[in-house]
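PT: before anyone asks, these are the final sequences, not the draft ones from last week. 314 residues across everything. Please model them as a single complex and drop the result in this thread when it's through.
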Amino acid sequence: MAKEPDPTESVLAIDIGGTKIAIAVVAADGTITHEARVPTLRDQDADATFAPLADGIAEIISQPGLQGTALRVGIGSAGPIDSPGGWISPVNIPAWRQYPIVAKVAEAVRAATGAEPAVGLAQDGHCMALGEHWLGAGKDLHSMVGMVLSTGVGAGAVINDRLFGGLTGNAVLLGHISVNAWGEECVCGGHGCVEMYARGPAMVQAAKAAGWTGGDDAVALTAAARSGNEIARTVIDNGMRALAAGIAATATLLDVPDFVLGGGVSKAGEVIFEPLRRHIAEFATMSYVKDLRVRPAQLENAGLLGAAALALSL
Ligand SMILES: [Zn+2]
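LR: through. Structure below.
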């Protein structure tokens, strides 16, 4: 996106997650002026699952100043998605398979404002990258890759201040590039994907298999590593080696040396970043990526702000 949008415009940002959907009115400087959250329903049909979002949109647009306005709207969603086709099939929302979210949101916004909106759709990893590039750890960068390390590994690239979406909006799916061609089969059908080693639950499972009994999640695992537990340190070291190989491959492919890492697991800090940086030095060897830098993310709501950035770029 351009870094100097129209200062008087507000946009609508929607961040669709597996447990909740955030809806916000965001000013052109990134200030959130109104925000609402609705639950992501389970075990409902597709349109029943959409109903709380439609209600939330109507509610937030009833705030003063937005009626009669041709809003620009950005939607971020878990993948797979199809940006040009306007549909989503989020793995964690089974009711939505090739669900025409762009058309449905446009209809709800049109009903509330009386005007035809412009609606854009991007994958959640792409929105995180857009948000951090706009207002977070990458705001001084023109090109960067944003990554989310949590129960999965998401990513997106901003190149020359524009989102690099790919043909369908799924580019830079770093979690599912292979770093072990002889590895076991991944849930995606590939072999030896980054996510199989680096995602939080995979590291926890590997630690338990090696005899660690200190807990059930990545918070406990990273705490154990910080206090010197050898199994925890080894498992995290392995996971970060896989992520490092994926990051170096992505940097080498895109010719972009700046990365921003967010997500729940990354919040453990140096216990994650130290092994990650150490391993990156072994893989990022080409002259144009050997100074590869990974910064911690800064925003708590990068996905929502990235959806706003997407709207401003429409
Ligand atoms: Zn995979």
